[in-house]
Design goal:
The chain has 9 helices and no strands. The chain is an all-alpha fold and about 210 residues long.
Length: about 210
């Protein structure tokens, strides 16, 4: 395998530590799982993982140079992503008292398609993830071994696999707890409000952080 084994071990251990530490992705998946059930939690994870695959490809292609040369582009994409998250949060809070929105336990409160697309768009519209990927992955690549693209691909596959393992488990667990709570109307309204608050908080964080 064209990759330094010591660097591979260091990368795997570092990524595991980073994954189990609660962050925006985990909170997003948690909210989707509680709102829509285990399936929505898994599909939200799949959306996030898909965007990470794009980020890895972008990192390998060197798109970070664009953000460095054009700070305005970085700011615009960041703000768009923040606005989208806040919009999702506001919609959840506004609809929490709508009796017509009462759904069966099986249907949940968020479709799998919406969970996937939300996870995909939220992470794709976060240029800080691109910057992180570009700053993080190269630390574990040995150019002297050649086939840099393949090394990026191997590390990216590990990153995405761990994303599914950790955040996917969070999504399934949140879905089971959320499914039990959704049988109670008052609890479901609290879930909607809490999930909306999480999304709004993540959006604000994304907008104000540099």
């Amino acid at each position: 395998m064209p990759i330094d084994q010591h660097l591979l071990l260091a990368f795997t251990l570092t990524t595991i530590v980073a994954m189990v530490t609660p962050g925006p992705d985990m909170l997003f998946v948690l909210g989707c799982g509680m709102r829509g059930g285990s399936r929505a939690g898994l599909l939200a994870t799949a959306g996030v993982a898909t965007s990470e695959a794009v980020h890895v490809a972008v990192a390998a292609a060197g798109l970070a140079a664009l953000f460095a040369a054009a700070p305005t582009a970085f700011a615009v994409v960041r703000i768009v992503g923040a606005v989208y998250l806040v919009y999702l949060g506001v919609q959840l809070i506004r609809r929490r008292r709508d009796n017509r929105a009462e759904l069966s336990t099986e249907a949940g409160g968020m479709s799998g398609r919406k969970a996937y697309l939300s996870g995909l768009l939220t992470n794709l519209l976060n240029p800080k993830m691109v910057t992180f990927t570009i700053a993080f992955l190269p630390q574990f690549i040995n150019p002297g071994l050649g086939q840099v693209w393949l090394q990026f691909a191997i590390l990216g596959a590990i990153l995405i696999g761990l994303e599914f393992l950790v955040d996917g488990a969070v999504g399934v667990f949140a879905g089971r707890i959320g499914g039990w709570l959704r049988r109670r109307a008052a609890a479901r309204r609290r879930i909607d409000a809490a999930t909306g608050g999480i999304f709004i908080g993540l959006g604000v964080r994304l907008a104000v952080e540099r």
